[in-house]
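Entry type: protein chain
Record version: 2
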Amino acid sequence: MLETITHWDTVITLFLNGLHASWLDPIMYWISNRYIWIPLYVFVLSITIIKWKRRSIFLALLLIITITLSDQSCNLLKNGTKRLRPSHNIELEQKIHLVKNSDGELYRSGQPFGFPSAHAANAMVFALFVFFFVGKRNTWVLIAIFFWAALLGYSRIYLGVHYWLDVECGYFVGAVWALGMLKVQSLILKI
């Protein structure tokens, strides 16, 4: 059973990773960079402050704590499962498309293990935060933020540093933490 899942995960990953173009490589590398999204985070924080006033301090702290918990739980799972990233898997060396980083070297990501994707988990926490507290009634905001989360997750597969299931399970981990965040805020703030 596990072999079948691993096989199909690899097939799907290689298919999605294979949808590359040289002009898209730097864009996907850029999309995957956590720091490039700081303006988005600041914008959402600003909207949160406008909408929630003094409660926004608690919500911002709750978001930071939730993302930290999401990120660190992914790191614990990575070290526990020790599933190699596609970029570190010798069997995929000739099959996987890797892009060059800003130094001109092939980007493989820092640590060798990638299950689950912390990028995907954290993106899901952030997207659900926007859904719960910022744009619940604005369809375009919701489409945009979930498209952003999906694009960020795909960029990790495109770069060859995550399998498809790494990303999907990362989304699951993030959703679990985000739902916990919602429960905590509802108990404390009674919003």
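Comment: The CA atoms of residues 173 and 183 lie 16 Å apart.
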